[in-house]
Write a structure and sequence with these properties.
There is one protein chain. The chain contains 5 helices and no strands. It is mainly α. It has one domain. Keywords: Membrane, Transmembrane, Transmembrane helix.
Length: 150
């Protein structure tokens, strides 16, 4: 077994031992996240429903500040999704089923994120928000799947 290069005895631990502790994940953490993430997702529906009831019933335009916020949010959400998915491409810890669900939900989230901006221009703004919100929920499930599987 290769040893880490160190002359200090307190750091003279096998490299594989360090790696094992660096990625140690307990069942309690997974269980807590499996409860916390859906709970927060469900509780976020309350303000989303309030926004739906008070939302604009007219389409937006490129002159609205909300349009440019949508462009900015969409760009950052896509970046976040790419940074989340990139490590999953060849991760050997993911089962076939988990890998499929992650990719299905990631593609759905990316589709919602991309559609969010043009929908703002042609439909009532609340529909654009709803599409964006749905994409964010899907991305949260992707993150949860990845955390639980690794």
């Amino acid at each position: 077994m290769p040893r880490a290069a160190s002359s200090d005895s307190k750091h003279d631990i096998a490299l594989s031992d360090k790696v094992a502790y660096a990625y140690a994940s307990g069942g309690k953490t997974r269980s807590a996240l499996a409860f916390i993430v859906p709970t927060i997702m469900l509780s976020s529906i309350i303000p989303a429903a309030l926004a739906w009831g008070r939302g604009d019933t007219v389409a937006g335009s490129t002159g609205d500040s909300s349009f440019w916020q949508a462009v900015s949010n969409s760009t950052l959400q896509l970046l976040s999704l790419i940074l989340l998915i990139w490590p999953a491409i060849k991760d050997p810890r993911l089962s076939q089923v988990t890998w499929i669900w992650i990719w299905v939900l990631a593609v759905f989230s990316a589709t919602c994120t991309i559609a969010y901006v043009p929908v703002y221009l042609v439909a009532p703004a609340i529909w654009s928000f709803s599409i964006s919100f749905t994409g964010m929920l899907a991305q949260s499930v992707v993150q949860l799947q990845f955390v639980i599987a690794t």
